[in-house]
Specification:
This protein has 531 residues and is α/β, with parallel strands linked by helices. It is built from 19 helices and 23 strands.
Length: 531
Protein backbone atom coordinates (compact mmCIF):
# COMPACT_ATOMS: atom_id res chain seq x y z
CA UNK A 1 0.00 0.00 0.00
CA UNK A 2 1.44 3.38 -0.97
CA UNK A 3 2.05 5.92 1.76
CA UNK A 4 -0.70 8.51 1.79
CA UNK A 5 -1.15 11.22 4.41
CA UNK A 6 -4.95 10.80 4.04
CA UNK A 7 -4.78 7.16 5.20
CA UNK A 8 -5.02 6.64 8.94
CA UNK A 9 -5.32 3.32 10.76
CA UNK A 10 -8.50 2.55 12.67
CA UNK A 11 -7.60 2.35 16.35
CA UNK A 12 -10.88 3.28 18.01
CA UNK A 13 -14.43 2.55 16.87
CA UNK A 14 -17.89 3.50 18.14
CA UNK A 15 -20.68 0.99 17.42
CA UNK A 16 -24.34 1.76 18.15
CA UNK A 17 -26.81 -0.28 16.15
CA UNK A 18 -30.59 -0.54 16.29
CA UNK A 19 -30.34 -3.27 13.65
CA UNK A 20 -28.00 -5.81 15.25
CA UNK A 21 -27.51 -7.79 12.02
CA UNK A 22 -23.83 -8.74 11.74
CA UNK A 23 -22.77 -6.41 14.57
CA UNK A 24 -21.15 -9.07 16.77
CA UNK A 25 -19.04 -10.51 13.94
CA UNK A 26 -18.06 -7.02 12.80
CA UNK A 27 -16.97 -6.01 16.32
CA UNK A 28 -15.12 -9.32 16.78
CA UNK A 29 -13.15 -8.70 13.59
CA UNK A 30 -12.27 -5.17 14.68
CA UNK A 31 -11.23 -6.37 18.13
CA UNK A 32 -8.97 -9.02 16.57
CA UNK A 33 -7.13 -6.16 14.83
CA UNK A 34 -6.57 -4.39 18.15
CA UNK A 35 -9.32 -1.81 17.69
CA UNK A 36 -10.84 -0.40 20.91
CA UNK A 37 -14.65 -0.72 20.85
CA UNK A 38 -16.97 1.92 22.32
CA UNK A 39 -20.66 1.16 22.44
CA UNK A 40 -24.08 2.06 23.85
CA UNK A 41 -27.01 0.36 25.57
CA UNK A 42 -28.26 -2.81 23.94
CA UNK A 43 -25.36 -3.00 21.50
CA UNK A 44 -22.84 -2.98 24.35
CA UNK A 45 -24.79 -5.69 26.17
CA UNK A 46 -24.84 -7.86 23.06
CA UNK A 47 -21.10 -7.51 22.52
CA UNK A 48 -20.37 -8.36 26.15
CA UNK A 49 -22.50 -11.50 25.89
CA UNK A 50 -20.32 -12.39 22.93
CA UNK A 51 -17.26 -12.07 25.17
CA UNK A 52 -15.90 -8.95 23.53
CA UNK A 53 -14.15 -6.11 25.39
CA UNK A 54 -16.38 -3.01 25.26
CA UNK A 55 -16.10 0.47 26.75
CA UNK A 56 -19.44 2.09 27.55
CA UNK A 57 -19.99 5.50 25.96
CA UNK A 58 -21.07 6.77 29.38
CA UNK A 59 -17.51 6.04 30.59
CA UNK A 60 -16.19 8.36 27.85
CA UNK A 61 -18.77 11.13 28.32
CA UNK A 62 -18.70 10.90 32.14
CA UNK A 63 -22.50 11.06 31.99
CA UNK A 64 -25.02 8.22 32.23
CA UNK A 65 -27.60 7.60 29.56
CA UNK A 66 -30.65 9.64 30.52
CA UNK A 67 -34.25 10.42 29.58
CA UNK A 68 -34.99 6.77 28.74
CA UNK A 69 -32.02 6.67 26.39
CA UNK A 70 -32.93 9.86 24.51
CA UNK A 71 -29.57 11.35 25.51
CA UNK A 72 -26.44 9.23 25.47
CA UNK A 73 -24.09 10.24 22.61
CA UNK A 74 -24.69 14.00 22.36
CA UNK A 75 -21.45 15.02 24.04
CA UNK A 76 -18.21 16.84 23.04
CA UNK A 77 -16.09 13.94 24.31
CA UNK A 78 -17.53 11.95 21.40
CA UNK A 79 -18.13 14.59 18.73
CA UNK A 80 -14.78 16.32 19.24
CA UNK A 81 -13.15 12.92 18.81
CA UNK A 82 -15.03 12.53 15.54
CA UNK A 83 -14.65 16.04 14.12
CA UNK A 84 -11.04 16.87 14.97
CA UNK A 85 -8.80 17.35 11.93
CA UNK A 86 -5.88 15.01 12.61
CA UNK A 87 -3.39 17.15 10.67
CA UNK A 88 -4.44 20.37 12.42
CA UNK A 89 -2.09 20.92 15.37
CA UNK A 90 -4.56 23.22 17.16
CA UNK A 91 -7.30 20.59 16.96
CA UNK A 92 -5.03 17.88 18.31
CA UNK A 93 -3.80 20.13 21.15
CA UNK A 94 -7.43 20.78 22.10
CA UNK A 95 -8.13 17.03 22.24
CA UNK A 96 -5.02 16.55 24.39
CA UNK A 97 -5.95 19.39 26.76
CA UNK A 98 -9.40 17.89 27.35
CA UNK A 99 -8.11 14.32 27.36
CA UNK A 100 -10.32 13.33 24.41
CA UNK A 101 -9.19 10.44 22.24
CA UNK A 102 -9.95 10.49 18.49
CA UNK A 103 -12.55 8.08 17.11
CA UNK A 104 -11.61 6.59 13.74
CA UNK A 105 -14.74 4.64 12.80
CA UNK A 106 -18.45 4.92 13.56
CA UNK A 107 -20.96 2.16 12.79
CA UNK A 108 -24.54 3.23 13.42
CA UNK A 109 -27.90 1.91 12.20
CA UNK A 110 -30.74 4.37 12.77
CA UNK A 111 -34.08 3.86 14.45
CA UNK A 112 -36.47 2.51 11.78
CA UNK A 113 -38.66 5.58 11.39
CA UNK A 114 -39.95 4.52 7.96
CA UNK A 115 -41.24 1.20 9.32
CA UNK A 116 -42.87 2.91 12.29
CA UNK A 117 -44.56 5.37 9.95
CA UNK A 118 -45.85 2.64 7.62
CA UNK A 119 -47.13 0.57 10.55
CA UNK A 120 -49.80 3.12 11.47
CA UNK A 121 -48.66 3.27 15.10
CA UNK A 122 -49.93 6.09 17.33
CA UNK A 123 -48.11 9.39 16.89
CA UNK A 124 -46.13 9.22 20.19
CA UNK A 125 -44.68 5.83 19.20
CA UNK A 126 -43.77 7.09 15.73
CA UNK A 127 -42.05 10.14 17.22
CA UNK A 128 -39.95 7.91 19.51
CA UNK A 129 -38.52 6.35 16.35
CA UNK A 130 -36.96 9.68 15.34
CA UNK A 131 -33.25 9.09 15.87
CA UNK A 132 -31.27 12.09 17.12
CA UNK A 133 -27.92 10.80 18.31
CA UNK A 134 -27.42 8.34 15.46
CA UNK A 135 -27.64 10.84 12.58
CA UNK A 136 -25.52 13.30 14.59
CA UNK A 137 -22.69 10.79 15.00
CA UNK A 138 -22.89 9.67 11.39
CA UNK A 139 -22.88 13.22 10.07
CA UNK A 140 -19.93 14.20 12.27
CA UNK A 141 -17.95 11.20 11.07
CA UNK A 142 -18.97 11.70 7.43
CA UNK A 143 -18.04 15.39 7.49
CA UNK A 144 -14.59 14.36 8.69
CA UNK A 145 -14.33 11.50 6.17
CA UNK A 146 -10.63 12.24 5.48
CA UNK A 147 -9.90 10.74 8.87
CA UNK A 148 -13.03 8.87 9.99
CA UNK A 149 -15.03 6.04 8.43
CA UNK A 150 -18.81 6.33 8.79
CA UNK A 151 -20.76 3.08 8.35
CA UNK A 152 -24.53 3.47 8.12
CA UNK A 153 -25.39 0.14 6.49
CA UNK A 154 -24.69 -3.38 7.85
CA UNK A 155 -24.00 -4.44 4.25
CA UNK A 156 -20.73 -2.49 4.49
CA UNK A 157 -19.37 -4.44 7.48
CA UNK A 158 -17.81 -7.27 5.49
CA UNK A 159 -16.14 -5.19 2.73
CA UNK A 160 -14.78 -2.75 5.31
CA UNK A 161 -13.32 -5.59 7.37
CA UNK A 162 -11.69 -7.07 4.26
CA UNK A 163 -10.11 -3.76 3.34
CA UNK A 164 -8.87 -3.20 6.89
CA UNK A 165 -7.30 -6.65 6.86
CA UNK A 166 -5.66 -6.11 3.46
CA UNK A 167 -4.43 -2.57 4.20
CA UNK A 168 -2.88 -2.96 7.63
CA UNK A 169 -5.88 -1.68 9.57
CA UNK A 170 -6.54 1.37 7.36
CA UNK A 171 -9.21 2.37 4.86
CA UNK A 172 -8.57 4.23 1.62
CA UNK A 173 -9.76 7.80 1.13
CA UNK A 174 -11.95 6.52 -1.71
CA UNK A 175 -13.75 4.11 0.63
CA UNK A 176 -14.22 6.73 3.33
CA UNK A 177 -15.62 9.21 0.78
CA UNK A 178 -18.02 6.56 -0.58
CA UNK A 179 -19.22 5.75 2.96
CA UNK A 180 -19.67 9.48 3.69
CA UNK A 181 -21.80 9.94 0.57
CA UNK A 182 -23.95 7.03 1.68
CA UNK A 183 -24.44 8.64 5.10
CA UNK A 184 -25.61 11.95 3.69
CA UNK A 185 -27.98 10.24 1.27
CA UNK A 186 -29.40 8.26 4.19
CA UNK A 187 -29.80 11.20 6.58
CA UNK A 188 -31.24 13.46 3.85
CA UNK A 189 -33.93 10.88 3.14
CA UNK A 190 -34.48 10.24 6.85
CA UNK A 191 -35.02 13.93 7.57
CA UNK A 192 -37.27 14.38 4.52
CA UNK A 193 -39.43 11.50 5.71
CA UNK A 194 -39.73 13.06 9.16
CA UNK A 195 -40.58 16.45 7.62
CA UNK A 196 -43.27 14.75 5.56
CA UNK A 197 -44.70 13.18 8.70
CA UNK A 198 -45.00 16.53 10.46
CA UNK A 199 -46.52 18.22 7.40
CA UNK A 200 -48.92 15.35 6.66
CA UNK A 201 -51.92 17.26 7.98
CA UNK A 202 -51.14 20.27 5.84
CA UNK A 203 -48.91 23.30 5.62
CA UNK A 204 -50.45 26.42 7.23
CA UNK A 205 -47.98 28.65 5.37
CA UNK A 206 -49.05 27.15 2.05
CA UNK A 207 -52.73 27.50 2.98
CA UNK A 208 -53.46 23.89 2.03
CA UNK A 209 -53.29 20.39 3.45
CA UNK A 210 -50.64 19.68 0.81
CA UNK A 211 -47.09 20.59 1.88
CA UNK A 212 -45.24 23.71 0.83
CA UNK A 213 -42.30 21.48 -0.11
CA UNK A 214 -42.47 17.84 -1.12
CA UNK A 215 -39.45 15.50 -0.99
CA UNK A 216 -40.39 11.87 -1.64
CA UNK A 217 -37.61 9.43 -0.81
CA UNK A 218 -36.97 6.30 -2.84
CA UNK A 219 -34.46 3.48 -2.55
CA UNK A 220 -33.65 1.22 -5.46
CA UNK A 221 -35.29 -2.17 -5.11
CA UNK A 222 -34.00 -3.69 -8.34
CA UNK A 223 -32.62 -2.93 -11.76
CA UNK A 224 -34.76 -3.94 -14.72
CA UNK A 225 -33.70 -5.31 -18.09
CA UNK A 226 -34.89 -2.06 -19.66
CA UNK A 227 -37.68 0.51 -19.42
CA UNK A 228 -40.86 0.70 -21.48
CA UNK A 229 -38.78 -0.03 -24.58
CA UNK A 230 -35.46 -1.88 -25.03
CA UNK A 231 -33.51 1.33 -25.71
CA UNK A 232 -34.52 2.81 -22.33
CA UNK A 233 -32.87 1.98 -19.00
CA UNK A 234 -35.20 1.12 -16.11
CA UNK A 235 -35.22 0.36 -12.39
CA UNK A 236 -37.78 -0.16 -9.63
CA UNK A 237 -37.58 1.98 -6.48
CA UNK A 238 -39.29 1.57 -3.12
CA UNK A 239 -40.81 4.65 -1.51
CA UNK A 240 -39.65 5.11 2.08
CA UNK A 241 -42.46 5.21 4.62
CA UNK A 242 -45.19 4.24 2.14
CA UNK A 243 -47.65 1.38 2.50
CA UNK A 244 -46.45 -1.90 0.96
CA UNK A 245 -46.72 -1.93 -2.82
CA UNK A 246 -45.29 -3.55 -5.92
CA UNK A 247 -41.70 -2.98 -4.76
CA UNK A 248 -42.52 -5.24 -1.79
CA UNK A 249 -44.32 -7.98 -3.75
CA UNK A 250 -42.73 -11.45 -3.61
CA UNK A 251 -42.18 -13.21 -6.90
CA UNK A 252 -42.74 -16.94 -6.59
CA UNK A 253 -42.23 -18.09 -10.16
CA UNK A 254 -41.50 -17.02 -13.72
CA UNK A 255 -38.95 -14.91 -15.53
CA UNK A 256 -37.83 -11.44 -14.53
CA UNK A 257 -40.49 -8.74 -14.38
CA UNK A 258 -40.37 -6.00 -16.96
CA UNK A 259 -41.03 -2.28 -16.52
CA UNK A 260 -44.41 -2.69 -18.23
CA UNK A 261 -45.30 -5.77 -16.16
CA UNK A 262 -44.86 -3.74 -12.99
CA UNK A 263 -47.06 -0.90 -14.24
CA UNK A 264 -49.82 -3.38 -15.15
CA UNK A 265 -49.48 -5.30 -11.90
CA UNK A 266 -49.84 -2.07 -9.95
CA UNK A 267 -52.98 -1.14 -11.88
CA UNK A 268 -54.51 -4.60 -11.38
CA UNK A 269 -53.80 -4.77 -7.67
CA UNK A 270 -54.99 -1.22 -7.06
CA UNK A 271 -58.40 -2.23 -8.41
CA UNK A 272 -58.88 -5.46 -6.49
CA UNK A 273 -57.70 -4.19 -3.12
CA UNK A 274 -60.53 -1.64 -3.17
CA UNK A 275 -63.01 -4.48 -2.55
CA UNK A 276 -63.58 -6.83 0.39
CA UNK A 277 -65.42 -9.55 -1.55
CA UNK A 278 -63.50 -11.85 -3.95
CA UNK A 279 -62.45 -9.67 -6.89
CA UNK A 280 -60.45 -10.10 -10.08
CA UNK A 281 -58.99 -7.57 -12.50
CA UNK A 282 -57.60 -8.35 -15.95
CA UNK A 283 -55.36 -5.54 -17.17
CA UNK A 284 -53.53 -4.71 -20.40
CA UNK A 285 -51.34 -1.61 -20.83
CA UNK A 286 -52.55 -0.33 -17.41
CA UNK A 287 -56.18 -0.34 -18.60
CA UNK A 288 -58.77 -2.87 -17.41
CA UNK A 289 -59.94 -5.46 -19.93
CA UNK A 290 -62.43 -6.69 -17.36
CA UNK A 291 -63.24 -6.62 -13.67
CA UNK A 292 -65.64 -8.72 -11.62
CA UNK A 293 -66.72 -9.70 -8.16
CA UNK A 294 -67.62 -13.32 -7.49
CA UNK A 295 -68.67 -15.82 -4.88
CA UNK A 296 -65.11 -17.16 -5.04
CA UNK A 297 -61.82 -16.42 -6.81
CA UNK A 298 -62.51 -18.73 -9.74
CA UNK A 299 -65.91 -17.23 -10.56
CA UNK A 300 -64.51 -13.71 -10.26
CA UNK A 301 -61.79 -14.56 -12.78
CA UNK A 302 -64.11 -16.21 -15.28
CA UNK A 303 -66.48 -13.25 -15.25
CA UNK A 304 -63.67 -10.68 -15.51
CA UNK A 305 -61.95 -12.53 -18.36
CA UNK A 306 -65.23 -12.95 -20.26
CA UNK A 307 -65.63 -9.17 -20.47
CA UNK A 308 -63.00 -8.92 -23.23
CA UNK A 309 -61.05 -12.15 -23.80
CA UNK A 310 -59.46 -10.79 -26.98
CA UNK A 311 -57.81 -7.87 -25.18
CA UNK A 312 -56.96 -10.08 -22.19
CA UNK A 313 -54.48 -12.10 -24.27
CA UNK A 314 -51.03 -11.52 -22.77
CA UNK A 315 -52.53 -9.50 -19.94
CA UNK A 316 -52.05 -9.26 -16.18
CA UNK A 317 -54.43 -10.80 -13.63
CA UNK A 318 -54.91 -9.46 -10.11
CA UNK A 319 -56.78 -11.10 -7.19
CA UNK A 320 -57.47 -9.75 -3.71
CA UNK A 321 -57.83 -13.24 -2.17
CA UNK A 322 -56.02 -16.56 -2.19
CA UNK A 323 -55.86 -18.38 -5.51
CA UNK A 324 -56.97 -22.00 -5.14
CA UNK A 325 -56.75 -24.93 -7.55
CA UNK A 326 -60.14 -24.14 -9.10
CA UNK A 327 -59.07 -20.59 -9.90
CA UNK A 328 -55.67 -21.80 -11.14
CA UNK A 329 -57.33 -24.16 -13.63
CA UNK A 330 -59.53 -21.30 -14.85
CA UNK A 331 -56.45 -19.12 -15.38
CA UNK A 332 -54.66 -21.86 -17.31
CA UNK A 333 -57.72 -22.48 -19.48
CA UNK A 334 -57.87 -18.81 -20.47
CA UNK A 335 -54.77 -18.95 -22.64
CA UNK A 336 -51.63 -16.82 -22.59
CA UNK A 337 -51.28 -14.46 -19.62
CA UNK A 338 -48.13 -12.67 -18.47
CA UNK A 339 -48.52 -12.40 -14.70
CA UNK A 340 -50.80 -13.30 -11.80
CA UNK A 341 -50.69 -11.36 -8.52
CA UNK A 342 -52.72 -12.38 -5.46
CA UNK A 343 -52.76 -12.30 -1.70
CA UNK A 344 -51.54 -15.91 -1.73
CA UNK A 345 -51.67 -19.22 -3.61
CA UNK A 346 -52.57 -22.64 -2.24
CA UNK A 347 -49.94 -25.34 -2.61
CA UNK A 348 -52.07 -27.12 -5.23
CA UNK A 349 -52.60 -23.90 -7.19
CA UNK A 350 -48.85 -23.25 -7.24
CA UNK A 351 -48.23 -26.76 -8.49
CA UNK A 352 -50.59 -26.17 -11.39
CA UNK A 353 -49.47 -22.65 -12.31
CA UNK A 354 -45.72 -23.26 -12.06
CA UNK A 355 -46.06 -25.79 -14.88
CA UNK A 356 -46.14 -22.68 -17.07
CA UNK A 357 -42.44 -21.85 -17.22
CA UNK A 358 -42.68 -18.14 -17.96
CA UNK A 359 -45.88 -17.27 -16.07
CA UNK A 360 -44.88 -14.79 -13.39
CA UNK A 361 -46.56 -15.38 -10.02
CA UNK A 362 -46.45 -12.78 -7.24
CA UNK A 363 -47.97 -12.33 -3.80
CA UNK A 364 -48.84 -9.05 -2.08
CA UNK A 365 -51.09 -8.42 0.88
CA UNK A 366 -53.81 -5.79 0.24
CA UNK A 367 -52.94 -2.68 2.25
CA UNK A 368 -56.40 -1.18 2.57
CA UNK A 369 -55.01 2.17 1.39
CA UNK A 370 -57.71 2.48 -1.26
CA UNK A 371 -60.63 2.10 1.12
CA UNK A 372 -62.87 5.11 1.49
CA UNK A 373 -61.49 5.75 4.98
CA UNK A 374 -58.01 5.70 3.47
CA UNK A 375 -56.30 3.57 6.10
CA UNK A 376 -53.83 4.88 8.70
CA UNK A 377 -51.54 6.66 6.26
CA UNK A 378 -54.22 8.26 4.10
CA UNK A 379 -52.94 11.80 4.61
CA UNK A 380 -49.50 10.78 3.29
CA UNK A 381 -50.59 8.52 0.45
CA UNK A 382 -50.35 11.14 -2.24
CA UNK A 383 -50.52 10.69 -5.98
CA UNK A 384 -47.89 12.56 -7.94
CA UNK A 385 -47.03 12.78 -11.61
CA UNK A 386 -43.81 14.08 -13.14
CA UNK A 387 -44.06 16.86 -15.68
CA UNK A 388 -41.21 18.61 -17.41
CA UNK A 389 -39.51 20.82 -14.85
CA UNK A 390 -41.99 20.07 -12.09
CA UNK A 391 -44.34 17.75 -10.28
CA UNK A 392 -48.11 17.52 -9.89
CA UNK A 393 -49.26 16.45 -6.42
CA UNK A 394 -52.74 15.49 -5.26
CA UNK A 395 -54.71 13.35 -2.84
CA UNK A 396 -55.60 9.94 -4.20
CA UNK A 397 -59.08 9.52 -5.65
CA UNK A 398 -60.91 7.50 -2.99
CA UNK A 399 -64.30 9.17 -2.87
CA UNK A 400 -67.01 6.63 -3.68
CA UNK A 401 -70.61 7.79 -3.28
CA UNK A 402 -73.04 5.54 -1.43
CA UNK A 403 -76.75 4.99 -2.10
CA UNK A 404 -77.60 8.01 0.05
CA UNK A 405 -75.43 10.24 -2.18
CA UNK A 406 -77.20 9.44 -5.44
CA UNK A 407 -79.72 11.97 -6.75
CA UNK A 408 -82.33 10.54 -9.08
CA UNK A 409 -82.99 13.17 -11.77
CA UNK A 410 -85.30 11.26 -14.15
CA UNK A 411 -88.90 10.13 -14.05
CA UNK A 412 -87.79 6.49 -14.06
CA UNK A 413 -86.35 5.32 -10.74
CA UNK A 414 -83.55 2.73 -10.60
CA UNK A 415 -84.35 -0.57 -8.88
CA UNK A 416 -82.38 -1.73 -5.84
CA UNK A 417 -80.34 -4.15 -7.99
CA UNK A 418 -79.62 -1.36 -10.45
CA UNK A 419 -78.49 0.93 -7.64
CA UNK A 420 -75.94 -1.72 -6.62
CA UNK A 421 -74.76 -2.05 -10.22
CA UNK A 422 -74.56 1.73 -10.68
CA UNK A 423 -72.39 2.11 -7.57
CA UNK A 424 -70.15 -0.75 -8.74
CA UNK A 425 -69.80 0.65 -12.25
CA UNK A 426 -69.14 4.18 -11.01
CA UNK A 427 -66.44 2.94 -8.62
CA UNK A 428 -64.79 1.20 -11.57
CA UNK A 429 -64.67 4.54 -13.37
CA UNK A 430 -61.83 5.44 -10.97
CA UNK A 431 -59.59 2.99 -12.82
CA UNK A 432 -60.66 3.63 -16.43
CA UNK A 433 -58.76 6.30 -18.31
CA UNK A 434 -60.79 9.36 -19.31
CA UNK A 435 -63.00 9.67 -21.10
CA UNK A 436 -64.20 6.57 -19.28
CA UNK A 437 -67.40 4.54 -19.70
CA UNK A 438 -68.25 1.36 -17.77
CA UNK A 439 -71.13 -0.95 -18.69
CA UNK A 440 -71.84 -3.47 -15.92
CA UNK A 441 -74.34 -5.87 -14.42
CA UNK A 442 -74.28 -8.10 -11.36
CA UNK A 443 -70.84 -6.96 -10.17
CA UNK A 444 -69.21 -7.60 -13.56
CA UNK A 445 -67.97 -5.24 -16.24
CA UNK A 446 -69.39 -6.03 -19.67
CA UNK A 447 -67.90 -3.28 -21.79
CA UNK A 448 -65.28 -0.61 -21.18
CA UNK A 449 -64.59 2.52 -23.20
CA UNK A 450 -61.53 4.53 -22.26
CA UNK A 451 -58.95 7.08 -23.30
CA UNK A 452 -61.11 8.59 -26.02
CA UNK A 453 -61.10 12.33 -26.80
CA UNK A 454 -64.92 12.41 -26.82
CA UNK A 455 -67.40 10.77 -24.49
CA UNK A 456 -69.59 9.48 -27.29
CA UNK A 457 -66.53 7.71 -28.77
CA UNK A 458 -65.90 6.09 -25.38
CA UNK A 459 -69.56 4.97 -25.32
CA UNK A 460 -69.24 3.49 -28.81
CA UNK A 461 -66.19 1.48 -27.73
CA UNK A 462 -67.89 0.22 -24.57
CA UNK A 463 -71.04 -0.86 -26.46
CA UNK A 464 -68.96 -2.57 -29.14
CA UNK A 465 -67.19 -4.56 -26.42
CA UNK A 466 -70.40 -5.37 -24.52
CA UNK A 467 -72.47 -6.32 -27.56
CA UNK A 468 -75.84 -7.91 -26.74
CA UNK A 469 -74.84 -8.21 -23.07
CA UNK A 470 -75.51 -4.49 -22.65
CA UNK A 471 -79.27 -5.06 -22.77
CA UNK A 472 -80.64 -4.69 -19.25
CA UNK A 473 -77.28 -3.48 -17.87
CA UNK A 474 -76.28 -0.13 -16.37
CA UNK A 475 -73.78 2.47 -17.55
CA UNK A 476 -71.49 4.78 -15.59
CA UNK A 477 -69.52 7.74 -16.88
CA UNK A 478 -66.48 9.24 -15.17
CA UNK A 479 -67.57 12.76 -16.22
CA UNK A 480 -70.74 14.51 -17.24
CA UNK A 481 -72.39 14.09 -20.65
CA UNK A 482 -71.83 17.24 -22.74
CA UNK A 483 -74.58 16.23 -25.19
CA UNK A 484 -77.52 13.79 -25.36
CA UNK A 485 -75.83 11.75 -28.15
CA UNK A 486 -74.53 9.11 -25.70
CA UNK A 487 -78.08 8.66 -24.34
CA UNK A 488 -79.29 7.75 -27.83
CA UNK A 489 -76.65 5.02 -27.92
CA UNK A 490 -77.68 3.79 -24.46
CA UNK A 491 -81.31 3.58 -25.54
CA UNK A 492 -80.41 1.64 -28.69
CA UNK A 493 -78.43 -0.93 -26.67
CA UNK A 494 -81.02 -1.45 -23.92
CA UNK A 495 -79.33 0.28 -20.96
CA UNK A 496 -81.65 0.47 -17.93
CA UNK A 497 -79.90 3.07 -15.77
CA UNK A 498 -77.03 5.55 -15.91
CA UNK A 499 -74.76 7.12 -13.27
CA UNK A 500 -72.85 10.31 -14.01
CA UNK A 501 -71.51 13.27 -11.99
CA UNK A 502 -73.84 15.89 -13.48
CA UNK A 503 -72.91 19.54 -13.81
CA UNK A 504 -73.06 20.10 -17.57
CA UNK A 505 -74.87 23.07 -19.11
CA UNK A 506 -76.61 20.35 -21.15
CA UNK A 507 -77.90 18.45 -18.07
CA UNK A 508 -81.54 19.31 -18.80
CA UNK A 509 -81.26 18.07 -22.41
CA UNK A 510 -79.55 14.88 -21.24
CA UNK A 511 -82.23 14.25 -18.58
CA UNK A 512 -84.97 14.86 -21.14
CA UNK A 513 -83.33 12.32 -23.48
CA UNK A 514 -83.31 9.76 -20.65
CA UNK A 515 -86.99 10.44 -19.90
CA UNK A 516 -87.90 9.87 -23.55
CA UNK A 517 -85.93 6.61 -23.53
CA UNK A 518 -87.34 5.43 -20.18
CA UNK A 519 -83.83 5.24 -18.71
CA UNK A 520 -83.22 6.04 -15.04
CA UNK A 521 -80.38 8.44 -14.35
CA UNK A 522 -78.65 9.38 -11.10
CA UNK A 523 -76.22 12.20 -10.43
CA UNK A 524 -73.33 11.25 -8.12
CA UNK A 525 -71.91 14.74 -7.60
CA UNK A 526 -68.44 13.13 -7.89
CA UNK A 527 -66.13 13.06 -10.90
CA UNK A 528 -63.57 10.28 -11.50
CA UNK A 529 -61.24 11.60 -14.21
CA UNK A 530 -58.08 9.54 -14.65
CA UNK A 531 -55.43 10.89 -17.02
Amino acid sequence: MTKDRTVFPVKRALISAYDKTGVALFARTLASMGVEILSTGGTAELLRREGLPVTDVSHVTKFPEMLDGRVKTLHPNLHAGLLALRENPAHMRTLEEHRIAPIDLVAVSLYPFAQALASGKPEPEVIEMIDIGGPSMLRSAAKNFRYVAALSDPADYDPVCRELSENGGALSLETRRRLAAKVFRLTAGYDALIAGFFSAEGDPEAGTRLPGAFSPQFRKASDLRYGENPHQKGALYREEGAAPGLADARQLHGKELSFNNILDLDAAFEMVEAFAEPACAVVKHTSPCGFALGKDTASAFKRAHACDPLSAFGGIVGFNNEVDAKAARAVLAAGFLECVIARSFTKEALGLLTAKKNLRLLTLEPSGRHRKDGGPEASRDWDYKKVKGGLLLQDRDRLDPGPQDLRVVTKAKPRASEIRDLLFAFRMCRYVKSNGIVIAKGGTTLGLGMGQPSRVDACMTAFRKAGARARGAVLASDGFFPKPDSIALARRHGIRAIAQPGGSIQDEAVIAACDRAGIAMVFTGVRHFKH
